[in-house]
Design brief:
This protein is of the alpha/beta class and 350 residues long. The chain contains 14 helices and 7 strands. The protein has a 7-stranded mixed sheet with strand order 3-2-1-4-5-6-7, sandwiched between helices.
């Protein structure tokens, strides 16, 4: 079916509140990639899908198609890749998932950290890594090499997903917030990491995202939401978790006290600009920050070590993360990553 006919059929179905097929969604995504669908048609599709509401299967179909049209990444590593990408949109905090990704790599996991610049807050993962001194604008082959050699690299979403750039402008002009810049992001890691801590900004998304993950290739997923509004494992209060493993979903809640940590206030985790957030991360790794900010990183790093198979529960993960930071391994990994991200570009120019 040519693009014009496809768009009309898709719009008819969406306005009739009918579920789209995988083939229809794939056709739309490929049409956007190939510039066969206009910005007006993209805008119409976004609004109609938003108004109808996306089913679990439709979200999974979009994720599959977006993965397939992304620039491919295939790092050769033993074991599974880990990602710590959330939806964003929750209460603002310093870049906890960014710090967590570095601790995870320092603890022996291979991390493909997918992310972008901030849309809703002061500093996204891309902004934080840049402020730390990391070169984030790398070619796919360079990203693969860093993951293989040092165990971590940031995957800058805008460099790997051509469709995202084409969806962004209609979405911005319409002033709407669709799934492409919220819940789709964690599902479309270009390296197809199968182990994730996937934070979500609304409680009702926990089960829904877990069901989506169950339809995608995965090994071990934690979909998490702090009921206070965090898209992280929360140090402020209760966290609702849906754990996805072998296609099965197990839901439970945890509190900081159950895991041996003290609760804090949201103000204790407040963000600043990228330079401030980078300083917080360094202070944690250098042992200067011993309070709630460090505990929040320990808690979320525990989740990474759990999905990555280093520990069997979150309590063990917290102790593992403490050891990684206290022995200076997290700081060492950060410095190694900064240096390698620049050297790989210099090597290419020679």
């Amino acid at each position: 079916m040519e693009a014009k006919q496809l768009v009309r059929e898709v719009m008819r179905k969406l306005t009739s509140r009918e579920e789209l097929t995988e083939e229809e969604i794939r056709g739309i995504i490929e049409g956007i990639r190939d510039d066969k669908i206009s910005s007006v048609q993209i805008g119409g599709f976004l609004v109609a899908l938003l108004m109808k509401g996306q089913t679990v299967r439709e979200i999974a179909y979009i994720a599959k198609a977006m993965r397939d049209v992304a620039l491919p990444l295939n790092p050769d590593v033993p074991g599974e890749l880990v990602d710590t990408c959330g939806t964003g949109g929750g209460l603002p905090t310093f870049n906890i998932s960014t710090a967590t990704s570095i601790v995870a790599a320092a603890g022996g996991l291979y991390v493909a950290k997918h992310g972008s610049r901030s849309i809703s807050h002061l500093s996204g993962s891309a902004d934080a890594f840049e402020a730390l001194g990391v070169n984030i604008e790398l070619e796919p082959s360079e990203v693969e090499e860093l993951i293989e050699k040092i165990g971590i690299c940031f995957l800058f979403a805008s460099l790997f997903h051509p469709v995202m750039g084409k969806v962004w402008e209609p979405e911005r002009e319409l002033g709407i917030k669709t799934i492409f810049f919220t819940i789709i992001g964690p599902l479309i890691n270009p390296a197809r990491a199968k182990c994730h801590i996937n934070g979500v900004y609304k409680l009702e998304l926990v089960r829904k995202m877990a069901e989506v993950w169950s339809l995608l290739p995965h090994k071990h997923i934690l979909v998490v939401h702090g009921v206070d509004g965090l898209d992280e494992i929360s140090l402020i209060g209760e966290t609702h978790i849906a754990e996805v493993k072998d296609g099965k979903i197990n839901e439970y809640t945890v509190t900081p006290e159950e895991l041996g940590l003290e609760r804090c206030k949201i103000e204790d985790l407040a963000p600043g600009d990228p330079q401030y957030n980078a300083k917080v991360i360094r202070d944690i790794f250098e042992g200067k920050e011993k309070g709630p900010k460090r505990d929040a990183v320990l808690l979320n790093s525990a989740g990474a070590f759990l999905v990555g198979g280093k520990v069997s529960n979150l309590r063990e993960g917290i102790e593992y993360a403490k050891k990684v930071i206290d022995e200076g391994k997290a700081l060492e990994k950060l410095e190694q990553y900064i240096k390698a991200s620049h050297e790989i570009k210099k090597k290419k120019k020679l």
